[in-house]
Every structure is written in structure tokens, then in C-alpha cells.
Write a structure and sequence with these properties.
Length: 127
């Protein structure tokens, strides 16, 4: 049984940093590209960024480039999302997901192409 469990969310102030973690089990983690998505109230789920098997290739949506960094530790079966210079617009539930394609790339930007999802963790950025 595949499980993805996010942690690290909470309430922060604008300009602060926060790191999210996603612990995976039940899959060969090092053979899955991983993605981070977010969903704000009343909005569709949005691609934040992705990372390939080894962590050597990452991609990000434009609104977080230069502020967010995705990394992974395959020995710990964990993917991270380091978020710096947070803005109120970053407020959302953040989800990690495992790519269904099993390709060694930074993953698709379409949520429906991911096979497994975590339950999400709330990030709230106050102004």
C-alpha cells in the first residue's frame, strides 16, 4: 500500500521560510519522479514543482521560481519543499504526489498524471 505523508505546514508571516516534507512508503521511491502541488480555496490544484529520480533535475511554476526549492533524500524516502520569502498568495493546502509515468524526469505539470497523492498539509501565510 502506497502512502505519502506530508508534514511541516502551519501559520507563518509574509517573508518567512518554511520547509515541507513528504515521507513515502510502499513504493520504490527512488524510481518515481515526485511533484508538489497546492490548492487554495476556490481554486484548482496547481503544479508547484517537480523533481526527477536522483534530484538532479527540477522544474517550478513561474510564481515560485527563485523562492522555492525541491529536494529529495532517497535513503529516507522523503521529498522536501523549501519555501522562502513566503507571500500571502502562497496560502494553500500543499500536496506531494508520485508520477505515474515512471520516467526519469522532473514530472508532469498535470495533476491527473500522478498516481499517488498525500493527504495535504495547510500552509497559511499572513500579511
Amino acid at each position: 500500500q502506497v502512502q505519502l505523508v506530508e508534514s511541516g505546514g502551519g501559520l507563518v508571516q509574509a517573508g518567512d521560510s518554511q520547509r515541507l516534507s513528504c515521507a513515502a512508503s510502499g513504493l520504490t521511491f527512488s524510481r518515481y519522479a515526485m511533484g508538489w502541488f497546492r490548492q487554495a480555496p476556490g481554486k484548482e490544484r496547481e503544479f508547484v514543482g517537480g523533481i526527477n529520480w536522483s534530484g538532479s533535475d527540477t522544474s517550478y511554476t513561474d510564481s515560485v521560481k527563485g523562492r522555492f526549492t525541491i529536494s529529495r533524500d532517497n535513503a529516507m524516502n522523503t521529498v522536501y519543499l523549501q519555501m522562502n520569502a513566503l507571500k500571502p498568495d502562497d496560502t494553500a493546502v500543499y500536496y506531494c504526489a508520485a508520477d505515474a509515468s515512471r520516467l526519469n524526469w522532473s514530472g508532469p505539470r498535470v495533476a491527473s498524471l500522478y498516481a499517488y497523492w498525500g493527504q495535504g498539509t495547510q500552509v497559511t501565510v499572513s500579511s
